Amino acid sequence: MDDDPVDPKPQIEENCRPKCTKQWSEYEACIGRVENDTTGEAHCTGQFLDFWKCIDKCATPKLFATLK
């Protein structure tokens, strides 16, 4: 029987997280500021996207290297 293929992306992304600690810290700091916002207009979308951009930049070459 053939084994089901395993998606390597989640593990590759997890391995890239240590390289993106600065962006994650900025996101967490923003969350702290937004919690105190009374206007309801503040958000941390930019910081969240910066974090995932860092993850993608790290993971993309490793992920494509696994393709046949």
Structure description:
- With 68 residues, this protein is an all-alpha fold.
- The protein has a domain at 19-33 and 43-68.
- It is 65% helix and 0% strand.
- The protein has three helices and no strands.
- Helix 1 crosses helix 3 and helix 2 runs antiparallel to helix 3.
- The two termini are 21 Å apart.
- The mean pLDDT is 93.
- Its main location: mitochondrion.
- It is found in: Mitochondrion inner membrane.
- Pfam families: UCR_hinge.
- Residues 7-68 form the Ubiquinol-cytochrome C reductase hinge domain.
- Disulfide bonds join 16-58, 30-44.
- State the helix count: 3
Helical percentage: 55-70%
Q: Structural class given helices, strands, pairing?
A: mainly alpha
What separation lies between the terminal Cα atoms? 21 Å
Mean of residue pLDDT values: 93
Secondary-structure element order, as H and E?
Answer: HHH
- Low-pLDDT runs of 5+ residues are none
Oligomer: single chain
Q: Report the biggest beta sheet as strand number plus sense, adding barrel if it closes.
A: none
Q: Approximately how much beta-strand content do the residues carry?
A: under 5%
Strand elements, count:
0
State the shape.
Answer: elongated
Rg, rounded, reads 16 Å
Give the arrangement of secondary structure elements.
Layout: H1 9-16, H2 21-35, H3 45-65
In short:
By secondary structure, the protein is mostly helical. It has helices at about 10-15, 20-35, 45-65. It has a domain at about 20-35 and about 45-68.
Features:
single chain, 3 helices, mainly alpha, 68 residues
